[in-house]
């Protein structure tokens, strides 16, 4: 059903880390059941803001074809993609742009909102530069802490966060309508390195999607965890212990790695997170904002 034009919906398109779930190349216990039962699949982290048939994406992932279908199924119609906001240049967050090209959707001037280094990365590297040349997309530059208004009633604020910035800066997005607000932070190295107080940010928003890549740092066995820094859910919950029940309930962990047991419905880790007053985001969740 198409909602009223003065009502905005937030649709969760994906909740997994960049490699998805089940994870590419993983046949270990953590992914085996998901390979055998694809109903357990989780798509790569992304959200959409929807008004009527108009749709804005936050990150465009390698799972975009399925996420586009998710939006179609929700609307019972084809969405009108009015813009895509990119957080950073790690493959799970932007490479779905390729599906907008001549070989696939062959779109017409879809606005891609990108920070200065991200903008330069797309403009100066094939095959993304070809999509610009063929006018499948147009890049719209955005700046840290400078608001953009969409649909006249939605304010988008990009805010830089500390992360592994090999090719671009990294931002989160604060999304505010005249009624409610949401915060989208799929990637950050640590809350302590950020020059903004995450506790205050949670209190200032109605709905919060936060980096929950790892439950704890011991779950990674075959890589140096220091080279893939993320706040563990255990450490995050410890930091958030000052929050009351109402503010804890705002928090939805996303960007879940395949090794993270909270991704599995009946795990003790998931139960501990939920019992502590927080949420594990699921693909397909819908909220009014």
How does the SSE layout of this entry go?
Layout lengths: L8 E6 L14 H8 L9 E6 L2 E5 L5 H12 L4 E6 L24 E5 L1 H8 L4 H6 L3 E5 L6 E3 L3 E7 L10 E6 L4 E5 L12 H7 L2 E5 L21 H7 L5 H4 L2 E4 L13 H8 L3 E2 L5 E3 L1
Parallel strand pairs: 3-4, 4-5, 5-6, 10-11, 11-12, 12-13
Antiparallel strand pairs: 1-2, 1-14, 2-3, 7-8, 8-9, 9-10
Describe this structure in words.
This protein is α/β, with parallel strands linked by helices and 289 residues long. The protein has one domain (9-288): Ribonuclease Z/Hydroxyacylglutathione hydrolase-like (Metallo-beta-lactamase, Chain A), CATH 3.60.15. Helices cover 21% and strands 24% of the residues. The protein has eight helices and 14 strands. The protein has a seven-stranded mixed beta sheet with strand order 6-5-4-3-2-1-14. Strand 2 and strand 3 (54-58) form a beta hairpin. The protein is globular. It starts with 8 loop residues before the first strand and ends with a strand. 43% of the residues are buried.
Attribute tags:
289 residues; alpha/beta; Metallo-beta-lactamase, Chain A; seven-stranded mixed β-sheet; 8 helices; globular
Alpha carbon gyration radius: 18 Å
Helix content: 10-25%
Shape, principal axes of CA atoms: globular
Q: How many β-strand stretches?
A: 14
Strand order of the largest sheet: 6-5-4-3-2-1-14
Number of domains: 1
Biggest pleated sheet: 7 strands, mixed
**Which CATH first-tier class would you pick?**
Alpha Beta
Task: Report the total helices.
Answer: 8
- The structure class reads alpha/beta
- Can you say what the CATH homologous superfamily is? Ribonuclease Z/Hydroxyacylglutathione hydrolase-like
Strand content: 15-25%
Low-confidence stretches are none
- The CATH architecture term is 4-Layer Sandwich
Q: What oligomeric state do the depicted chains represent?
A: single chain
């Amino acid at each position: 059903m198409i909602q009223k034009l003065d009502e905005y919906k937030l649709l969760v398109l994906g909740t997994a880390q960049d490699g998805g779930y089940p994870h590419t190349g993983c046949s270990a216990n953590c992914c085996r059941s998901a390979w055998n039962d694809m109903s357990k699949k989780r798509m790569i982290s992304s959200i959409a803001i929807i008004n009527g048939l108009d749709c804005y994406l936050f990150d465009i992932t390698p799972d975009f074809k399925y996420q586009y279908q998710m939006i179609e199924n929700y609307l019972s119609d084809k969405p009108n993609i009015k813009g895509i906001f990119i957080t950073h240049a790690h493959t799970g967050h932007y490479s779905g742009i390729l599906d907008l090209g001549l070989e696939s959707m062959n779109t017409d001037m879809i606005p891609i909102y990108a920070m200065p280094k991200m903008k330069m990365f797309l403009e100066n590297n094939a095959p993304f530069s070809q999509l610009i040349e063929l006018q499948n997309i147009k890049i719209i530059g955005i700046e840290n802490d400078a608001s953009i208004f969409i649909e006249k009633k939605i304010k988008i604020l990009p805010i830089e966060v500390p992360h592994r910035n090999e090719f671009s800066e990294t931002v989160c997005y604060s999304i505010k309508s005249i009624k409610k607000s949401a915060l989208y932070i799929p990637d950050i190295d640590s809350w302590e390195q950020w020059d903004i107080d995450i506790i205050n940010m949670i209190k200032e928003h109605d709905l919060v999607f936060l980096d929950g890549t790892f439950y704890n740092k011991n779950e990674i066995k075959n890589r140096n965890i220091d080279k893939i820094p993320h706040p563990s859910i255990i450490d995050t919950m410890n930091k958030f212990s000052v929050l009351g029940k109402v503010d804890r309930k705002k928090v939805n962990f996303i960007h879940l790695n395949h090794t993270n047991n909270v991704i599995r419905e009946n795990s003790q880790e998931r139960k501990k997170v939920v019992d502590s007053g927080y949420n594990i985001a699921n693909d397909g969740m819908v909220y009014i904002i």
